[in-house]
Amino acid sequence: MALTSWKSFNFFTVTPVRPADEPENAPPPFQGADITALTAGSDNLFLGTSDGRVQVVSSAFKIARTFSTAEGGFTQGTGAITHLKQIEGSSLLVTISEDLSSEPVLKVWALDKVEKKTGDPKCLSSLTVNNGRKQYPATAFAATPSLSLLAVGFANGSITLIKGDLIHDRGTRQRIIFESEEPITNLCFSPPSDSGRGQRHAPPIPGNDGGETLYVSTTARVLTLQTHGKAVGQPRVLESQGCGVGCMTPAVDFTSDERGLRDGGEIVVARDDALYFYGPNGRGACYSYEGPKQSIQVFKNYIALISPPASRPSTAVATHRGHGVSATLKRFVGQTSTGVGSDDLFDTTKFTLVDTELKFIAHSERLISGVKETFISWGDFFVLTLDGKLYRYHEVSLQEKLDILYARNLYVLAINLAQKAGVPESKLRGIYRRYADYLYGKGDFDGSMQWYIKALGPANEEGVSTVIRKFLDTQRIHNLIEYLEELHKHDAATSDHTTLLLNCYAKLKDIDKLEAFIKHNPEEGLKFDVDTAIGMCRQAGYYEQAVYLAEKQQEHDIVVSIMVENLGNINDTLDYIQRLEPEVAYPNLMKYARVFLQKAPQSTTDALVEYYTGRYIPRKKETQGTAAPQAKQQDGGFQSYLNSSLLQQLPYMPGVSQTNTPTQAGASPAKGTAQTPSPGETGTKPLDLPKQYQIPKPRTAFSSFVDHPVEFVDFLERILQDGESTGKLNENDRIDIYTTLFEIYLQRANATKNKDEKRKWEAKAKKIIESKEALVDTSNVLLLSHLADFKDGTTLVREKQGLRFDIFRSCCSAGDTAGAVRALKKYGSEEPELYPAALSYFTSSPKVLREVGEEELGRVLKVIDEQGLMKPLQVVQTLSSNGVATVGMVKRYLGDTIDRERREIQNNRKMIDTYRQETTKKSADIAELGSKPTVFQAQRCQACGLPLDLPTVHFLCKHSFHQRCLNAVDGESLECITCAPTNQTIRTLKRGQEEVAEKHDLFKTTLADGKDKFAVISDFFGKGVMAAPPPLG
């Protein structure tokens, strides 16, 4: 592709260089300067002169230092300096000086070291370059960064390779490795590997020095020479055309951080017809560019070309050897501005900067004066003209370049330029959006949409809404769909975008795309707002797709909601819920429990029982065409027996039939549960055990069974049965269940018209009261029994609570005389107070008395009399209060009472006489003992039975003992051991009476609780409670 067809821009600013302290009308800084060689590096500019001096120019373009290359003690080095090279990243400077009368002299200088005598930089090494003693000028020079390899080319076509340590002056070896008839125009070592590129001012890396290949150009050929190994000096011709001096350069700018050129070559060569890239294997890319070439240099990612006027001879390609030599010699003897006047005034030198990778011209300029030298320093490109003027070319910023390209609508080039510069992706997307807006304005909707899509990033950036508004037209709906799909792929879509995309699908009725959108590759995950998509699918009537999305995202509550509210498929919903984990299945089951009970009551009840008993097992989804692997008949029979035996212990396992757990007719057992195989089966499924989960309280399910009493009873009874057998139900849960069952039993009893069925329900209710009275609150039973008119319940509760008097009273209040009689007979023995109440009730009216009968009245009076429940006077007062009972009815009772009182009076009189006689006798005995002597006639000891002998002890009670038999201790009072127990008893009784005499509270309490007050007073009087206290002192 010809460079003339490339687009041209002005990406560089040009400023003349002059010292800061000089006036504007001052002459050019290098006008008339004697410059025979020039190089830049380490933030300095180095100039070589014809008298062998080196001038160091600072960044202010002031000569900071000057030194001579001729040292004391050396005879060489008095010629002009023809080549300079500063080793980037170091303080080393290489000079080659020659005067054509002798061979060139190469020196290495250490700019950071100073000779003490002269103050000049220290010369590290010096050597004469061997050219076989042929007097030809050095036309080319190359060196590796470590100076371990140097190559010098001469005008006679020979190349000298120098190896050694020039920095430490440890000796070198020179060898002429190539000779030809054409002059050597350029030398270039192969650059280091990529690891050494892009590191500005970096020191040389050992082992990464490059130089394995030496690229050589003559006036007639381009070739390579090996510098290492046995093949040293063996040429390999890359091209049978050569180039002029300065028209070959490495394809890398070692002073820049840029990546260099990417055209498949290590060097670039400029000829009059084109630019050529070469590598070790031959020629690479080629770019046509007609015109003479003076020099070429790589600056950053650009190629800087100097093209002399067409009227001047080209240095790029020489047609014959003599002309090439003369052109080469002119560059080293110097050129002055005096020769300019002989040329045509309209002939100008063209300076061009091209980007071969992106194929555009970054800068193009015509210079009136010819170009003497070009160099790179301080991040800019400099051009030194023949009239001594120095121009600085500074690259504008990337944003300025992009603005220039935007103004010319060159968005593709702007994108490529930004990508090459390593612009962040976020900024690149802004350029994409600009290009898309441009294409949209031109009417290229498809093309603009592609760039709008490319402008999408990982986040929902600004501008998305603008793009969507542009394509809301019905004719652009396909572009809009494409854009919205990409938004979802980039995770940049909001719920509104998802809604809009689904609306577009619905508007086009494109079910296939809708399916593809929601059922894409599962491994990638969903790229949209699932909740929005589900809601949109439900709204548009795509219920199956909504179910798929919800199930895929584990949104089980939404799945159940759609299946119940939209699809109305109750059985499938129950199956789906029973495949979920316990913690997820429970809320969904309870949310629609009433609907399930209405449509599938038995299946729902079974599911609730299974969960509330802790035996819930998530079922596996059944798939068609799958079957359990068959086993041998013998093994299958044993496994079948094992599973059936184990399942007998799990009465609520799915698929297991039981007498008190009805199952839905025709329902197949869930997959994953063990069953007993039929006779034709040879194996069975493995047994799945229930998972551990928090069992909810049974009362949480009560509200779900409203209007479903039959299923409610079934649920409660089965829960209760399991809880009583396993002990899983706590006391509160049992109370809730028993109370609720009692209420439902009474409701069912009142609701039925069948007497047998009513008795059955009432019997169940009575059984709860009789057997579980501690678990049912009495007030609840009484309230429920009263509301249901269940008298047996009230009676049972009062009986269990010991409220027998209340039972009798309720019968009396209700006028149930027979019930009152039954209660009296049943509870009279345990509750004697019922008899006085019964006497009052029986005689309350003639009707009640007739219903009771005189016989029952007599029995009541007999019990009252026998147990002393009432005084006769009280009985008479009770009977006479209503005037219902007659004297004849109580004649026998009164006669018996009078006879008993008479007998008691007689018995009391007899006891009084007996006590008087005993008192009189005791008083006489005491008087006799105190007034008359006592004769002791006992012959034997009362203790041992032996005859008495001295010492003998006699007591007034007429008992005698040996003194030794009394075991008396000295000083202790003696007591008859025969009468001692009786005496001790008397003393204890007396002490007790004295203690009781001081306990007045005991007397009051006993008197209040006693039935016969007079008897109590008499008893305490006899114990001395009411005796006068003994006198003090």
UniProtKB/TrEMBL annotation:
User: Catalytic activity annotated for this protein?
Assistant: S-ubiquitinyl-[E2 ubiquitin-conjugating enzyme]-L-cysteine + [acceptor protein]-L-lysine = [E2 ubiquitin-conjugating enzyme]-L-cysteine + N(6)-ubiquitinyl-[acceptor protein]-L-lysine
Enzyme's top EC category: transferase
Ranges for domain Vacuolar protein sorting protein 11 C-terminal: 983-1026
Enzyme Commission code(s) on record:
2.3.2.27
Q: Where is this region: Disordered?
A: 191-210, 653-692
InterPro entries noted in UniProt: ARM-type_fold, CHCR_PEP5_VPS11, Clathrin_H-chain/VPS_repeat, PEP5_VPS11_N, TPR-like_helical_dom_sf, VPS11, VPS11_C, WD40/YVTN_repeat-like_dom_sf
Q: Where is the composition biased (Polar residues)?
A: 656-666
Membrane topology, as annotated: Peripheral membrane protein
Where it sits in the cell: the answer is: Endomembrane system; Vacuole membrane
Which residues belong to any copy of the PEP5/VPS11 N-terminal domain? 6-395
PANTHER family, per database record: VACUOLAR PROTEIN SORTING-ASSOCIATED PROTEIN, VACUOLAR PROTEIN SORTING-ASSOCIATED PROTEIN 11 HOMOLOG
Q: Tell me, how does this one assemble?
A: Component of the homotypic vacuole fusion and vacuole protein sorting (HOPS) complex. Component of the class C core vacuole/endosome tethering (CORVET) complex.
- Record's protein name: E3 ubiquitin-protein ligase PEP5
